Amino acid sequence: MFLPILTAVCGVVVIILTRASKTTENFSSTSSITATTSTTTAISYRWNATAKTIAGIVGSSGNGSSQLNNPYGLVVDSSGAVYVADSANNRVQKWIIGASSGTTVAGQADGTNSFGPSYLFNPTDVLVDSNGTVYAADTGYQRIQRWTNGSSSGTTVAGTGTFGPATDQLYNPYGLAWDPSSGALYIADESNDRIVQYLPGATNGTVVAGGNGRGINVSSQ
Predict the structure, then answer these.
(1) Domain span at residue 168?
(2) Which terminus of the chain is more solvent-facing, meaning fewer CB atoms within 10 Å of its CB: N or C?
């Protein structure tokens, strides 16, 4: 199952990305947040002096296995492993509990990018299922890529690789969510100002929110 992103409930540990310091930490306060029910620590929304870095090196960006560079989205699996969309390194990194370095599970470990199934370009969000299958919002290539556990390449499950407003296209996809009851994938299609739903096996998405231009009206996104 996918664990929720942007969760704010008591009784969980909160893990938050801090892009400025290139790290993922417990109890910080910047760009992305996820939750795991592995302990019963209550949430704090302020910096806690006992916070610790669990992925990346404070103040050190790079493409080494112990480093991150402009991390965006993250998710935690049932074992407590943290998956990070390591955006400027064009990869998704998996950090198991207590590890001093991560493992590349999508994209190239050295951060190279090229338009092909083995690459990502500025990924901004990630989901992982109970089988270890990774779904990455491949923002730079305008698509969503699925990487099965242990695979060296991904499969496109949404988007065409070119930006646009058509129902089979995306334009800067940023956020991902999953509906376990239907298997539907929901995508925050940022520059199209809409939320798109992709059912399993679909080649076209359905607009479920927005899509009527940017604005503050209830029909806008």
Answers:
(1) 13-210
(2) N
Residue 27 identity: F
Count of domains for the chain: 1
pLDDT band (50, 70, 90) for residue 2 = very low
The answer, as to whether pTM is greater than 0.85, is: no
- Residue 215 located in a structural domain: no
